[in-house]
Structures are given as C-alpha cells and as structure tokens.
Amino acid sequence: MDTTHDFESERPLVVVANRLPIEYDEAEGWHPAPGGLVAALESVLRDREALWIGWSGRFEDPDSDAEQAPPPPTGTGSLKLDEVPLTHAEVEGYYEGCSNGAIWPLYHDAIVTPIYHRTQFQAYRRVNEKFARHVAEVAPPEAVVWVHDYQLQLVPRMLRQMRPDLRIGFFLHIPFPPVEIFSQLPWRRQILEGLLGSDLVGFQTKEAALNFLRLVQKYVALRPGGDRVVVDELSGSRTVRVEAFPIGIRAQDFAELAADPATIERAAQIRADLGDPELILLGVDRLDYTKGIDVRIRAVTELFQDEDLDPDSTVFVQVATPSRENVEEYQRIRDDVELLVSRANGDIGKLGTTPIHYLHQPMRRDELTAMYVAADVMLVTPLRDGMNLVCKEYVACRTEEDGALVLSEFTGAAHQMSDAWLVNPYDIDGVKRSILDAAQSAPQESARRMSALRHGVFEHDVERWASDFLNRLQGSL
Ligand code: ADQ
User: Fold this and answer.
1) Tens digits of per-residue pLDDT, 68-122?
2) Poorest-pLDDT segment among 12-16, 34-38, 113-117
3) Which percentage of the chain shows pLDDT scores above 70?
4) What's the CA-to-centroid distance between 254 and ligand 1, angstroms?
5) Which residues surround ligand 1 with Cβ inside 6 Å?
C-alpha cells in the first residue's frame, strides 16, 4: 500500500509555531499571515484535525485600547487555533532581539553581524518555556507535537520534561550553519540540547542535518551513528533521528490557478500595463537582507547600462512584502533597495519608461499567480535561504513549460533544481551572464529545463513533505 501521502494517525496532532497562521489589521480584520512557514503548513493542515498553537500578534499588556485587536477566531474548519499571549517586553527580547537579531543572521551565514544580548536570551528561554507549558497543558495524551522553527529551539527538551508521553518532532525552516559559524553562539549547548529533546529533528537539506550532527558530537559529547543520536536520560536511553525533509508547495493549486482564464487575462493585462515589453523579469520576496534583492537590482541595472538589456523593451518588477519592520537591519535593507531602484530609474529611465517597477506591499495569491504567469524570467538570488518557495511557485505556474528560472546556489531549493540557471549571488558578473542566458535561451532549451523543474516540484510537494515527516515521526516508514 502506498502510504507516502497519508499521515492520518490515531494520535492527535498539535502544531507549535511562533505565529498563528493569521494576523490582524484594521482594514482587513483577521486574515492569513504572510511568509513561507505559514504558506506551507496552512495548506497541509487546512483539512486536518489538528490544533495549531502560536502567538497571534496580540499583546498581553496592550498600550491602549486602540492597539489591541479583537480575539482571534478559534479555528478554521477542522484546524483549531490556540493563542499564546506575549507581552511587549517578551516580543522585544525573544522575537525581535534573540530570534531575529542573533539567531536569524547567524544561521544565514552571519551575512549581517548577529548581536548577542544575554538578557534577550533570557527572554528567549522564558518565552520558550511559556510555549512549552502551554502545550503541556493542552496537548491530548500521547499526542504528536510538531514544533517549528528557530524561535522555539528550546521547546522540545522542556516539553519532554513536562510531558514524556508526547511524541515530539522539530522542523527548522531556515539553514543550519556549519560548525565554524554556529560555534559563535554563546548559548550553543543549550540550543543543541533543546533540539535533542525531540524524537525527530528535520532540516531542509542534508548539509544542514550533517552540520547539526557534527555540532552534537563537538559540544554535547554524543557520538552520532549515521542519522541517529542516542541520548541517555534518567528514564533510560532514547534515540533521536536527524534527517532532511525538503519542503515543497501545493503545486497543483498553483497550476490550477495559473491555468484559470481569469488569471491568464490578468497576466495579459499586467503585460499591457507595463507597456507591452518583450521581456518581463520578476522578483518576489519578503523584504529581507538574506534574499539578495540588492544583488539582482545591481545586476539588472548594469545590464541596462551595458546595453545588454534594452529599457524600451524590458521591464524588471520587484515585489517586496514588508517584513520585521521593527528590526533595524530591515529598515536599512529597505532604504538600500529603494535607493538602488530610484537611482537606476533616474539613470536609465526616460519619460514614460520605468525600467524597474518596485512594489513594497503584500500581494493577494491570485494577483501573485498572474505575475508568475506574466514573467518571462524569474530572479531568485538569496545569499542564503533554507529552501525558498517562490522559485517553486513560479515553476508550478508555468503550465506551458516556458519561462526561465535564475536561482541562487545558496538556497535549499538549488539542491533539487539543478535545471535552473544556477548562480553564485556574490558574483555579479556571473549573475548578469545567467540572466542574459536565461532570457535569450532557445525555446526548446527553456522547455527542457522547465519540464524537468516542474516534474520535481510536483513530485516533492508540500503534502509529501508533511507526510514524510509525520510518518517518520510516528515510526511508520
Ligand atoms: P520565507 O523566508 O518567508 O520562508 P519563502 O520560502 O520564499 O521565504 O516564502 C515566501 C512566501 O511568501 C511564498 O509563499 C511567497 O509566495 C509569499 N510572498 C512573498 N512575497 C509576497 C508578496 N509580496 N505578497 C504575497 N505573498 C508573498 C521561510 C524560510 C524559507 C523556507 C520557508 C518554508 O526562510 O527558506 O522556504 O520558510 O520552509
């Protein structure tokens, strides 16, 4: 029997993530939150019996009535939502400070210097304990608990101590760095031990899993055997499995939406609105310094300046979702990107011609899909990325098997997508060459590459990722 896409189990499922899959603003009320983790998980859990525990974005100590949103809905269909309230000080220390000021940059190769504050780590530990305690209180007996991402790395061990009956899995959505980089972390041993509280630790790539195993050997003095680590505890010894589970997307949904006549019409309208260019280049990202948005703006600008691309017949559209706007480095990258765009348009543009279109706003799923359908070349150039879902979404939307993907080698996705035009984002000349090659490649060559890419994206979709992880966690594979 083929059980690969089936993870129904006797045991109840509890998902724990920093955020619930919804957020609040005055205009829209409660609506789906942006970002890769939510996009991936929400689509898998939408139709399952499961409980999702996370912060809603509401404060336990609101500054004013105006700041406080109404309570979030308690569920969407069979997926139930359960809020962990946080204070302003907790959000500042645990989320903006330790998670996004220290761990996020460190795990992305320290592209931006991580800032380590002891008080912020104390907040991180306290909030991880708050999450663990909340889960321990509400998780049904013998539940499968799936903990997500870098904000909650101490939860597995804390939870195991509180509730040894639970089966605990952890998945890291971002990269896990090599020994030389991770070793900087003042709290490296606590983090490794925190993760070892799981029965299964999952990463996006084999490299990340190997990095973790090496670090366990070095700092926790345990000798891994293959992908297993045996941990001795008072209650006896326990085996932790460490493996790669590359995340995917709901490919079929994207393909269906892309083939919808309304989407095709909207894509044609987008092309017309852009002045009917021969070539549309597209970038879509959260506005984050890891995504290499500046890299591709520089490369495209130089191609215009070198006259390899003609601004009369080429348009580059960059869509950037606002992200982590309270963190200083994110304000800086926004300024950098906006300066680069306006400088390029000032230098290259003419009256009535804007070579680079920049939208700093979230986009609805149907509009985003129309953008993917309209774009001839997709530019995905992160300096480091755990996986990157945007490149997979683009490929899923190319139902005619045309279009081309320029993809950074330093994404998890590059390990599965060798038929893309792979680039080293630190090599601007190389990026420029690949953009031109992708734009000018013969239709048969583009079709061959796109067909191979599509095969991979449909084969390794998000359902398969979730079922592989959960089946392994439940010991049935
Ligand atoms: P992210 O860093 O958020 O995810 P990514 O994987 O590219 O990055 O996912 C972004 C998601 O947000 C995509 O689904 C995309 O469609 C959506 N999005 C981006 N810009 C948007 C816009 N302007 N409007 C609307 N939607 C937009 C983290 C890790 C990644 C990993 C994922 C999943 O950093 O490496 O792939 O989790 O594990």
Assistant:
1) 788 888 876 788 999 999 999 999 999 999 999 999 999 999 999 999 999 999 9
2) 34-38
3) 96
4) 14
5) 34-37, 39-40, 173-174, 247, 284-286, 319, 321, 362-363, 368, 385-390, 393
- Write the residue with the smallest CA distance to atom 16 of ligand 1: 390
Do β-strands 377-380 and 144-148 pair in parallel, antiparallel, or remain unpaired? Answer: unpaired
Identify which of 45, 43, 54 has the alpha carbon closest to the alpha carbon of residue 12. 45
Taking all residues of the chain, what is their mean pLDDT, rounded to a whole number?
93
CA distances in angstroms from 285 to 85, 347, 413, listed in the order given: 28, 25, 15
By most ligand atoms within 8 Å of CB, the mutation choice from 28, 109, 390 for ligand 1 is: 390
CA–centroid distance, 37 to ligand 1, in Å, is: 7
**What pLDDT was estimated at residue 32?**
79
For ligand 1, the distance from its centroid to the CA atom of residue 100, given in whole angstroms, is: 16
Q: b/e for 51-76, b at 16 or more Cβ within 10 A?
A: bbbbbbbbbeeeeeeeeebeebeeeb
Q: First vs last Cα of the chain: how many Å apart?
A: 12
Residue of minimum CA distance from atom 28 in ligand 1? 36
Mean pLDDT of 158-186: 97
Q: Report the atom number in ligand 1 closest to the C-alpha of 359.
A: 23
Pair 393, 249: CB distance under 8 Å: yes
pLDDT of 3 = 36
Integer-rounded Cα radius of gyration of the chain: 23
Measured in Å, residue 160 CA sits from the centre of ligand 1 at: 31
- Residue 169: pLDDT over 90: yes
Give the residue from 84, 13, 82 showing the smallest Cα distance to 50. 13
Q: Please give the distance, rounded to the nearest whole angstrom, from the Cα atom of residue 189 to the centre of ligand 1.
A: 30
